[in-house]
Amino acid sequence: MAADIRVFRCLSDNIGALVHDPATGACAAIDAPDEGPILAALEAAGWRLSDILVTHRHADHVQAVEPLKRRFGCRVVAPAKAKGEVPGADIYVGEGDKVQVGGLSAEVWETPGHCADHIAYWFADERAVFAGDTLFTLGCGRVMESPYEEMWASLTRLAALPDDVRVYSGHDYVISNARFALAADPDNAALKARAAEAERAKAEGRFLVPSTIGEEKATNPFLRAGEPALARAVKREGAAPVAVFQALREWKNRF
Length: 255
Ligand SMILES: [Zn+2]
Known about the structure:
35% of the residues lie in helices and 24% in strands. The protein is an alpha/beta fold. α5 packs antiparallel against α6.
Protein backbone atom coordinates (compact mmCIF):
# COMPACT_ATOMS: atom_id res chain seq x y z
CA MET A 1 0.00 0.00 0.00
CA ALA A 2 1.34 3.41 -0.91
CA ALA A 3 2.29 5.89 1.77
CA ASP A 4 -0.05 8.73 2.63
CA ILE A 5 1.91 11.99 2.77
CA ARG A 6 0.59 15.30 4.13
CA VAL A 7 2.32 18.67 4.14
CA PHE A 8 1.41 21.80 6.09
CA ARG A 9 2.89 25.14 7.12
CA CYS A 10 4.81 25.56 10.39
CA LEU A 11 6.36 28.67 11.97
CA SER A 12 6.63 31.52 9.45
CA ASP A 13 7.82 29.60 6.39
CA ASN A 14 8.75 26.02 7.38
CA ILE A 15 6.91 23.07 5.92
CA GLY A 16 5.94 20.13 8.09
CA ALA A 17 5.43 16.70 6.53
CA LEU A 18 3.90 13.47 7.78
CA VAL A 19 4.51 10.12 6.08
CA HIS A 20 1.98 7.47 7.07
CA ASP A 21 2.10 3.76 6.35
CA PRO A 22 -1.51 2.58 6.08
CA ALA A 23 -0.46 -1.07 6.40
CA THR A 24 1.09 -0.74 9.87
CA GLY A 25 -0.18 2.62 11.15
CA ALA A 26 3.37 3.92 11.53
CA CYS A 27 3.74 7.64 10.93
CA ALA A 28 6.88 9.75 10.64
CA ALA A 29 7.24 13.50 10.88
CA ILE A 30 9.98 14.83 8.65
CA ASP A 31 11.65 17.34 10.98
CA ALA A 32 9.84 18.91 13.90
CA PRO A 33 9.65 22.68 13.45
CA ASP A 34 6.61 23.34 15.64
CA GLU A 35 4.53 21.07 17.87
CA GLY A 36 1.11 22.67 17.36
CA PRO A 37 0.74 22.28 13.59
CA ILE A 38 2.16 18.74 13.74
CA LEU A 39 -0.36 17.75 16.42
CA ALA A 40 -3.15 19.35 14.41
CA ALA A 41 -2.13 17.47 11.26
CA LEU A 42 -1.91 14.18 13.17
CA GLU A 43 -5.30 14.73 14.73
CA ALA A 44 -6.95 15.71 11.44
CA ALA A 45 -5.65 12.52 9.83
CA GLY A 46 -6.24 10.27 12.84
CA TRP A 47 -2.58 9.19 12.91
CA ARG A 48 -0.20 8.53 15.81
CA LEU A 49 3.42 9.61 15.57
CA SER A 50 5.91 6.71 15.64
CA ASP A 51 9.06 8.38 14.25
CA ILE A 52 10.72 11.73 13.63
CA LEU A 53 13.24 11.84 10.78
CA VAL A 54 15.51 14.85 11.16
CA THR A 55 17.20 16.30 8.05
CA HIS A 56 19.62 18.64 9.84
CA ARG A 57 20.32 20.17 13.22
CA HIS A 58 19.04 23.74 12.72
CA ALA A 59 16.66 24.86 15.48
CA ASP A 60 13.72 25.49 13.16
CA HIS A 61 13.84 21.79 12.20
CA VAL A 62 14.35 20.18 15.62
CA GLN A 63 12.82 22.45 18.26
CA ALA A 64 9.63 20.35 18.64
CA VAL A 65 11.44 17.00 18.79
CA GLU A 66 11.52 16.71 22.57
CA PRO A 67 7.89 17.69 23.28
CA LEU A 68 6.69 15.30 20.56
CA LYS A 69 8.90 12.52 21.90
CA ARG A 70 7.52 13.08 25.42
CA ARG A 71 3.97 12.89 24.13
CA PHE A 72 4.27 9.92 21.75
CA GLY A 73 7.41 8.08 22.84
CA CYS A 74 8.41 8.16 19.18
CA ARG A 75 11.82 7.18 17.83
CA VAL A 76 14.06 10.05 16.70
CA VAL A 77 16.40 9.49 13.75
CA ALA A 78 19.09 12.13 13.23
CA PRO A 79 22.12 12.75 11.00
CA ALA A 80 25.33 11.08 12.21
CA LYS A 81 27.23 14.32 11.62
CA ALA A 82 24.90 16.15 14.03
CA LYS A 83 25.71 13.81 16.90
CA GLY A 84 25.02 15.51 20.22
CA GLU A 85 23.22 18.42 18.52
CA VAL A 86 19.74 16.97 18.01
CA PRO A 87 17.89 16.83 21.33
CA GLY A 88 16.24 13.46 21.95
CA ALA A 89 17.97 11.63 19.10
CA ASP A 90 17.80 7.82 19.43
CA ILE A 91 19.71 6.69 16.38
CA TYR A 92 22.12 8.41 14.05
CA VAL A 93 22.27 7.64 10.35
CA GLY A 94 24.55 8.44 7.45
CA GLU A 95 25.09 7.75 3.77
CA GLY A 96 23.38 4.57 2.55
CA ASP A 97 21.66 3.69 5.82
CA LYS A 98 18.10 2.38 5.60
CA VAL A 99 15.34 3.77 7.80
CA GLN A 100 12.03 1.92 8.22
CA VAL A 101 8.77 3.70 8.97
CA GLY A 102 6.53 0.71 9.59
CA GLY A 103 6.65 -1.11 6.27
CA LEU A 104 7.98 1.92 4.37
CA SER A 105 11.68 2.16 3.64
CA ALA A 106 13.88 5.19 3.11
CA GLU A 107 17.50 5.41 2.13
CA VAL A 108 19.65 8.12 3.70
CA TRP A 109 21.63 10.39 1.38
CA GLU A 110 24.18 12.77 2.82
CA THR A 111 23.52 16.11 1.12
CA PRO A 112 25.98 18.58 2.67
CA GLY A 113 26.06 22.23 1.63
CA HIS A 114 23.41 24.16 3.56
CA CYS A 115 25.12 22.61 6.59
CA ALA A 116 27.67 19.84 6.95
CA ASP A 117 25.32 17.37 8.66
CA HIS A 118 22.43 17.64 6.20
CA ILE A 119 20.79 14.41 5.00
CA ALA A 120 17.87 13.63 2.71
CA TYR A 121 15.44 10.69 3.01
CA TRP A 122 14.76 8.91 -0.26
CA PHE A 123 11.63 6.73 -0.25
CA ALA A 124 12.24 4.94 -3.54
CA ASP A 125 9.03 2.86 -3.51
CA GLU A 126 7.02 6.02 -2.85
CA ARG A 127 8.87 8.05 -5.50
CA ALA A 128 9.38 10.75 -2.86
CA VAL A 129 12.47 12.49 -1.52
CA PHE A 130 12.52 14.69 1.57
CA ALA A 131 15.21 17.20 0.73
CA GLY A 132 15.06 19.45 3.80
CA ASP A 133 16.96 22.68 3.18
CA THR A 134 19.01 21.35 0.26
CA LEU A 135 16.54 21.68 -2.65
CA PHE A 136 13.50 23.97 -2.55
CA THR A 137 10.74 24.53 -5.07
CA LEU A 138 12.48 26.93 -7.52
CA GLY A 139 15.43 27.38 -5.17
CA CYS A 140 18.02 25.85 -2.90
CA GLY A 141 19.28 26.34 0.64
CA ARG A 142 21.83 28.95 1.55
CA VAL A 143 25.34 27.46 1.49
CA MET A 144 26.54 28.07 5.02
CA GLU A 145 29.03 25.45 6.15
CA SER A 146 30.32 23.41 3.24
CA PRO A 147 32.21 24.33 0.09
CA TYR A 148 30.03 25.24 -2.90
CA GLU A 149 31.33 22.10 -4.62
CA GLU A 150 29.62 19.95 -1.97
CA MET A 151 26.28 21.74 -2.29
CA TRP A 152 26.50 21.48 -6.07
CA ALA A 153 27.21 17.75 -5.79
CA SER A 154 24.23 17.33 -3.44
CA LEU A 155 21.93 19.19 -5.83
CA THR A 156 23.09 17.37 -8.96
CA ARG A 157 22.64 14.05 -7.18
CA LEU A 158 19.04 14.93 -6.34
CA ALA A 159 18.51 16.19 -9.89
CA ALA A 160 19.59 12.79 -11.23
CA LEU A 161 16.54 11.14 -9.66
CA PRO A 162 13.75 10.26 -12.14
CA ASP A 163 11.63 13.18 -13.33
CA ASP A 164 8.44 11.94 -11.66
CA VAL A 165 9.96 11.84 -8.15
CA ARG A 166 8.21 14.24 -5.78
CA VAL A 167 10.45 16.65 -3.88
CA TYR A 168 9.41 17.72 -0.39
CA SER A 169 11.39 20.68 0.88
CA GLY A 170 11.74 22.16 4.35
CA HIS A 171 10.57 25.71 3.58
CA ASP A 172 8.05 27.52 1.45
CA TYR A 173 10.11 30.26 -0.19
CA VAL A 174 8.45 29.80 -3.54
CA ILE A 175 7.38 33.41 -4.17
CA SER A 176 10.80 34.94 -3.47
CA ASN A 177 12.45 32.02 -5.27
CA ALA A 178 10.22 32.57 -8.31
CA ARG A 179 11.10 36.27 -8.44
CA PHE A 180 14.80 35.51 -8.33
CA ALA A 181 14.46 32.70 -10.87
CA LEU A 182 12.73 35.08 -13.31
CA ALA A 183 15.57 37.59 -12.90
CA ALA A 184 18.20 34.92 -13.54
CA ASP A 185 16.43 33.02 -16.32
CA PRO A 186 14.00 35.49 -17.91
CA ASP A 187 13.52 33.68 -21.23
CA ASN A 188 12.50 30.35 -19.71
CA ALA A 189 8.86 29.79 -20.75
CA ALA A 190 8.36 26.87 -18.36
CA LEU A 191 9.62 29.05 -15.51
CA LYS A 192 7.26 31.91 -16.41
CA ALA A 193 4.30 29.54 -16.30
CA ARG A 194 5.45 28.10 -13.00
CA ALA A 195 6.02 31.53 -11.42
CA ALA A 196 2.48 32.48 -12.40
CA GLU A 197 1.23 29.23 -10.87
CA ALA A 198 3.14 30.04 -7.66
CA GLU A 199 1.43 33.45 -7.41
CA ARG A 200 -1.96 31.84 -8.04
CA ALA A 201 -1.28 29.18 -5.42
CA LYS A 202 -0.32 31.81 -2.87
CA ALA A 203 -3.49 33.80 -3.54
CA GLU A 204 -5.47 30.60 -2.89
CA GLY A 205 -3.55 29.79 0.29
CA ARG A 206 -1.70 26.85 -1.27
CA PHE A 207 2.02 26.32 -1.78
CA LEU A 208 3.94 24.41 -4.41
CA VAL A 209 5.31 21.58 -2.29
CA PRO A 210 5.83 18.90 -3.35
CA SER A 211 7.18 19.66 -6.76
CA THR A 212 8.86 17.09 -8.99
CA ILE A 213 12.43 16.55 -10.08
CA GLY A 214 11.30 17.11 -13.68
CA GLU A 215 9.72 20.48 -12.82
CA GLU A 216 12.80 21.56 -10.87
CA LYS A 217 15.20 20.58 -13.66
CA ALA A 218 13.15 22.67 -16.09
CA THR A 219 12.68 25.76 -13.93
CA ASN A 220 15.00 25.90 -10.90
CA PRO A 221 17.89 28.24 -11.78
CA PHE A 222 20.29 26.47 -9.42
CA LEU A 223 19.75 23.10 -11.12
CA ARG A 224 20.15 24.87 -14.47
CA ALA A 225 23.62 26.27 -13.67
CA GLY A 226 25.02 24.14 -16.50
CA GLU A 227 22.87 25.96 -19.09
CA PRO A 228 24.47 28.75 -21.15
CA ALA A 229 21.58 31.13 -20.36
CA LEU A 230 22.35 30.95 -16.64
CA ALA A 231 26.10 31.34 -17.20
CA ARG A 232 25.32 34.46 -19.25
CA ALA A 233 23.08 35.83 -16.51
CA VAL A 234 26.01 35.86 -14.06
CA LYS A 235 28.61 36.79 -16.72
CA ARG A 236 30.44 33.46 -16.39
CA GLU A 237 30.14 32.17 -19.96
CA GLY A 238 32.25 29.06 -20.39
CA ALA A 239 32.78 28.59 -16.65
CA ALA A 240 32.19 25.26 -14.92
CA PRO A 241 28.60 24.74 -13.74
CA VAL A 242 29.72 24.83 -10.10
CA ALA A 243 31.17 28.32 -10.61
CA VAL A 244 27.90 29.45 -12.21
CA PHE A 245 26.03 27.84 -9.32
CA GLN A 246 28.14 29.73 -6.78
CA ALA A 247 27.61 33.04 -8.58
CA LEU A 248 23.84 32.42 -8.74
CA ARG A 249 23.65 31.51 -5.06
CA GLU A 250 25.68 34.57 -4.02
CA TRP A 251 23.44 36.77 -6.20
CA LYS A 252 20.35 35.27 -4.53
CA ASN A 253 21.86 36.05 -1.08
CA ARG A 254 21.87 39.75 -2.06
CA PHE A 255 18.64 39.69 -4.10
ZN1 LIG B 1 18.38 24.92 7.88
